[in-house]
Amino acid sequence: LRVFALKSIAWRRLLEKTLLDIVLLPQEISPDALLLREACRARNIPVWFLNHGYPAGGYRFEENLICGDLDVDRVLAWGPGDAANYQAAGVPLERVTVTGNPAFDEFLPLRKHGPVPSPAGARVLVMAYARPYGMAAYMDDNEEKYFSDVVSLLDRLGAARVLFKLHPGLPRMGFYRRLHEKLRVRCPVEFLQDEPFNAALERCDFAVG
Fold first, then answer.
1. How many CB atoms lie within 10 A of CB 111?
2. How many other CB atoms sit within 10 Å of the CB of residue 62?
3. Which of 7, 19, 90, 92 is most buried (CB neighbours < 10 A)?
4. C-beta of residue 94 within 8 angstroms of C-beta of residue 83
5. Could you tell me the sign of the dihedral formed by the alpha carbons of 59, 65, 70, 73, in that order?
6. Cα angle for residues 129, 130, 133 (degrees, 5° grid)
């Protein structure tokens, strides 16, 4: 509680020194996001929300936060499909605006790939999932099962290489390296964390996520 209190004070002091018309939140479930939102509310600064990644808990889970704890003024959707998902989850139509997302728009227009008949001999990109903020030890079993099952299956299917892309904001490299050391697989596994996602895509034949 002391840490949260100090962070709340820090956000309020920052906003006192900074002239802002709008605050844009890139994610919805961390204590920092909630504290910043409250600090903005105290100064009547509008809060907009543009999710930086696919919602880990689904749109219904996210909508509960948006319409409850976060209470943002506007939701910025990646595209029409994203907007429809928010609306289906209960976010009012007038609060959703389709803006795109720079992190994803750089991949447009999408390249056309031919069908991959088999993973045999292929370079496969596997995306690690990011645990919801604040959930620690009991998520390790889920991550271990996901990593072990997927890599072992790709190894049995004859993949030439697995590129395992970690979330750039979570220090989990050591955890996954230890998991890899316990696996008996012939297929090389390369861990990527800071490499841009589009660069990782250029190196793979198809992706698993």
1. 7
2. 23
3. 7
4. no
5. positive
6. 155
Q: Which two tokens stand for residue 125?
A: 């990109």
Structure tokens at 147: 């990593």
Q: pLDDT digits over 115-172, tens only?
A: 766 889 999 999 887 655 444 444 667 788 889 999 999 999 999 999 999 877 777 8
Residue with tokens 């844009």: 24
Q: What is the number of alpha carbons within 13 Å of residue 116 lying toward its C-beta?
A: 16
Structure-derived torsion over alpha carbons of residues 170, 173, 179, 181, reported in degrees to the nearest 10: 180
**Alpha-carbon distance 40 to 19, whole Å?**
11
Q: How far apart are CA 96 and CA 93, in angstroms?
A: 6
CA 134 from centre of chain: 14
Assessment of whether the complete model's pTM goes beyond 0.70? no
Cα separation of 183 and 48, whole Å? 44
Tokens (6 digits) for 13: 């002091």
Q: In degrees to the nearest 10, what's the CA dihedral of 114, 78, 201, 116?
A: -20
Give, to the nearest 10 degrees, the angle between helix 31-42 and helix 2-17: 50
DSSP SS3 for 42 = helix
Q: CA–CA separation, 195 vs 108, rounded Å?
A: 19
pLDDT single digits (tens) 19-46 = 889 998 887 667 788 788 888 888 899 9
Q: CA angle 158-175-51, nearest 5°? A: 90
| The pairing of beta strand 74-77 with beta strand 47-49 | parallel
